[in-house]
From TrEMBL:
GO biological process: RNA modification
Highest taxon listed in the record's lineage: Eukaryota
PPR repeats: from-to residues: 153-183, 184-218, 288-322, 323-358
Signal peptide: 1-28
Record's protein name: Pentacotripeptide-repeat region of PRORP domain-containing protein
InterPro entries, A to Z: E_motif, PPR_At4g14850-like_plant, PPR_rpt, TPR-like_helical_dom_sf
Length: 500
């Protein structure tokens, strides 16, 4: 490229603002360099800035329009495709200082596309749906989707479905998903991930089954989602089936995918199959912080705390740097194993050894470790000196210790801190503590306060897998089939007679 053209482009792209005289100078330099003789030069220039510099692309467009107002090929449908992609990216990654609101810019580009009769082009229509969705303007995205029905394609459906899924609008997402004439891998993955994000794990597994029945090959997102759902449901047999699918000869790159292996470790750990989880972990060619954290968590959650702490040491020997979640899991393991000094050592060295300040979750794990060791006063002092406001998890850990040790006075001081008022679980703990000590007036006071603040205890839940199907049971739920309720009543009667 001639030096004069390089200088013109540098001025055009680097300055946050340009005067009319500077724009005329750039125009003249581009004419001399013959760049303007190429009708595709403006679009090529915009495309060269994506995806790295979306804000520069958006800033460049109005300058190019003022300079190249005689080019019949600019702007065209490709121009809007580039600009709308830049707008979607800019809405997710705003610079400092932030520019004018991106949603206003998207509306302006939409209006210009209508004026130029380009809004019904497939590239432009899909770009508008994606850009409006990225700005959380789902009603505008839906309007474009309906108005341009003649140019809808797979991208149109998938863009809007993904937007609904990300916004947790499950009803709208499912309705659109059911209407889709051709469901793609991305569409199935988006619907499945939406269910997992909303805690509707059984529905997520059903979507995965439908995906396989439709002979749509699952991608990584779908596999990760269904493994998370299997882990949450305790659906071990279904999880094993997914494992066999991603390990078979037709699995391709997924068989050696580190994220899939980590999801398998997490699933097996939550389903209680620790030996299989360890086999997957040991079989990984390379283990990152997420794989180590998943395995440490599985061991700690099932009481194998010494192994979890030992694995943490191996992690450090391998040069893998722990993250915040890793340290939460290790602190919890130390607490369950009664290794208070080790927990103190890790907690106290977080800033120096790992470059991170303890967060509220780390304080909660440390409080739990102290409480389990009977050091309730020290735990209370740690809570009082926290640099941030303790949450219900921290206070719940402190109350657990009080309940275990009968520390009614400490529990009263905890209640005086005012943090417990927003937590139904902590209020129930406090009530149980008073009940265990025969303080019935205090029990009534706590329960009345819960009613006044409209706090409802989350019902207990249990799951069992029978013939590959996960059944969920909530405390007080009477909606199951009659034979299930008969079995439950028989078990209840049998347990009562055994206790008596």
């Amino acid at each position: 490229m001639p030096p004069i053209a390089t200088a013109a482009l540098h001025l055009l792209l680097s300055r946050p603002s340009l005067t009319a005289a500077q724009l005329r100078q750039v125009h003249a330099q581009l004419i001399i360099s013959s760049l303007l003789s190429d009708p595709f030069f403006p679009n090529s220039l915009l495309r060269s800035l994506l995806p790295a510099s979306p804000h520069r692309a958006l800033r460049l467009f109005p300058r190019l329009r003022r300079i190249i107002h005689t080019n019949p090929f600019f702007p065209n449908s490709y121009t809007f495709s580039f600009l709308l992609t830049a707008s979607a990216s800019a809405s997710l990654h705003p610079p400092t200082p932030p520019p004018p609101h991106v949603s206003t810019l998207v509306s302006s580009l939409h209006a210009l596309a209508v004026v130029l009769a380009l809004d019904a082009h497939a590239y432009v229509s899909n770009g508008l749906i994606h850009a409006y969705s990225s700005c959380a303007l789902l009603s505008s995205a839906r309007r474009v989707f309906h108005l341009n029905a003649s140019c809808r394609d797979v991208c149109s459906w998938t863009s809007l479905l993904t937007a609904y899924a990300r916004a947790a609008r499950l009803h709208d997402a499912r309705h659109l998903f059911d209407e889709m004439p051709d469901k793609t891998t991305v569409a199935y993955g988006a619907m499945l991930s939406a269910y997992v994000g909303a805690g509707s794990f059984a529905d997520a597994v059903d979507v995965f089954r439908d995906m396989l029945r439709a002979r749509v090959r699952p991608n990584r997102a779908a596999v990760l989602g269904v493994l998370a759902a299997c882990g949450a449901l305790g659906a071990l047999e279904q999880g094993r089936w997914v494992h066999a699918m991603v390990s078979g000869p037709s699995a391709g790159a997924m068989a050696s995918d580190g994220m899939v292996a980590t999801a398998l470790i997490d699933m097996y750990g939550k389903c209680g199959s620790l030996e299989t989880a360890r086999q997957v972990f040991d079989g990984m060619p390379a283990r990152d912080v997420f794989a180590y954290t998943a395995m440490i968590t599985a061991l700690s959650d099932h009481g194998r705390c010494a192994e979890a702490i030992e694995l943490f040491g191996r992690m450090q020997e391998d040069g893998v740097r722990p993250n915040e979640v890793t340290l939460i899991c290790v602190l919890s393991a130390c607490g369950r194993a009664g290794m208070v000094e080790r927990a103190r050592e890790i907690f106290g060295s977080m800033a120096a050894a790992y470059g991170m300040e303890p967060g509220v979750e780390h304080f909660g794990s440390m409080v739990d470790a102290l409480g389990r060791a009977g050091m309730v006063e020290e735990a209370l002092e740690l809570v009082r000196n926290m640099p941030m406001r303790p949450d219900s998890y921290v206070m719940g850990a402190l109350l657990n210790a009080c309940v275990a040790l009968g520390g009614e006075e400490v529990a009263a001081r905890v209640a005086e801190l005012g943090i417990l008022e927003r937590s139904s679980g902590a209020q129930v703990q406090l009530s149980n503590l008073y009940a265990g000590r025969g303080k019935w007036e205090e029990v009534v006071s706590v329960r009345r306060g819960m009613e006044e603040r409209e706090l409802v205890k989350v019902p207990g839940c249990s799951m069992v897998e029978v013939d590959g199907v996960a059944w969920e049971f909530l405390a007080g739920d009477r909606s199951h089939e009659s034979w299930i309720m008969d079995v439950a009543a028989h078990l209840h009667k049998h347990l009562r007679s055994t206790i008596q």
